[in-house]
Amino acid sequence: MKDELSGLRRDYTLGELKREELLSDPIEQFELWLKQVIDLGLKDPTAMTVATVDATGQPSQRIVLLKQLDARGFVFYTNYASKKAQDIGQNAKVSLHFPWHALERQVKVCGVAEKVSAAESLKYFSSRPEESQLAAWASHQSHPVESRTLLMSQFQRMKEKFKSGKIPLPDFWGGYRIIPTEIEFWQGGSHRLHDRFVYQKDDDGRWDIQRLAP
Fold it and tell me: Binding residues for FMN, per the UniProt record (predicted)?
């Protein structure tokens, strides 16, 4: 297997990224790339890796879906008792990664996480399918569960409990907004000479753009 892995490689030839093509605002640049991914019909275009670090310095990663994006930052939703939420509670610095392999592109975001308002969480929670709302109540995310049978039993109990009227927002569930301080755009290039540009926010809140060596 070791020899097989070392031989797996390909060249990146779909395009290049030029400094003059970049928008001055990285959020707008991200939105442009995201729209291109969506327009191509790629699966899970909003899937992103969220990397956190716990109190011991151990990094942890998982894939979630980007659910909101504006000038303030990138928003995802989770159980506030989950592993990622526990990590954020101790170290709010977070990194996001969007792997768009079909376009030979990736985007890395570094920033600080903060909880979104209860009103924002409620608005999004109410837009979810009823089964997803019930699942948020049924799952004690990141904690041990004896079996899937028990998990489904908890789901059925929640379904019975909330069979009449709207399902309320759990007080242990909501969103995080990652306020970016650095955003890097990567476009694959031939001979491993990839194009990398990083936007970094200065003390005055302006974005500085630099090309990085691949």
Answer: 62-67, 77-78, 83-84, 106, 141-142, 186, 196
